[in-house]
Design goal:
This protein has 189 residues and is mainly α. The protein has seven helices and no strands. Helix 2 crosses helix 6, helix 3 packs antiparallel against helix 6 and helix 4 runs antiparallel to helix 7.
Length: 189
């Protein structure tokens, strides 16, 4: 039971850690186009991301697949930038749910591999990695939903109170997220 709680807390703080801002940026990019009325759809998009994230941790923890860490560290901010570009390009079009779920899983795979080496190091001496894996995944999902809920509330308030129109809001937020993501890439160089 201790292992489950430890890894659940690790998953919670993995997302909420300001030193790992990539998660916050990705969740922001993923949800800035939605309002609170879209919570069900957003829930499944975020859950798709968690499925991908967990799958890559599984693949890494069991030595099935280990992509080059430098490529993954580049791809993480690239997925954030691509999400923002997608948001801006589809502002006046209804979202394609299948596309969004599919890319959330793929982008989750990439982000999960970014944490895979650390997770493997933590679980290397354990007899079973399944309980830590599920505890961690559940912690990630819970914290992501809290972050997404906060973002949806802000989105809804700003748009409903007509503080800013949705198109400008998405464009401004996307531009800021892209700049922060480019800074992550620059820091790698």
């Amino acid at each position: 039971m201790y292992d489950l709680i430890f890894y659940l807390e690790l998953g919670l703080f993995h997302v909420l850690d300001w030193n790992a801002i990539d998660h916050m940026l990705f969740l922001s990019a993923l949800t800035i186009v939605y309002s609170f009325k879209d919570f069900k759809n957003v829930f499944w998009i975020v859950t798709s991301f968690t499925v991908g994230h967990t799958l890559s941790l599984f693949l890494s923890a069991f030595d099935i697949l280990k992509p080059d860490s430098q490529i993954i560290e580049f791809l993480i901010p690239a997925t954030i930038i691509l999400t923002c570009v997608y948001n801006v390009m589809n502002l006046k079009v209804n979202s394609n749910v299948f596309f969004e779920y599919t890319f959330s899983i793929i982008f989750g795979l990439i982000h999960g591999f970014g944490f895979g080496n650390y997770f493997e190091m933590l679980t290397d001496s354990l007899d079973t990695k399944i309980i830590p894996l599920f505890g961690f995944a559940f912690g990630v999902e819970l914290s992501q939903l809290v972050v997404v809920l906060a973002i949806l509330i802000v989105n809804t308030i700003l748009i409903k109170l007509k503080i800013i129109n949705k198109i400008n809001y998405v464009k401004i937020c996307s531009a800021l997220i892209i700049l922060l993501s480019l800074n992550l890439i620059y820091q790698m160089i």
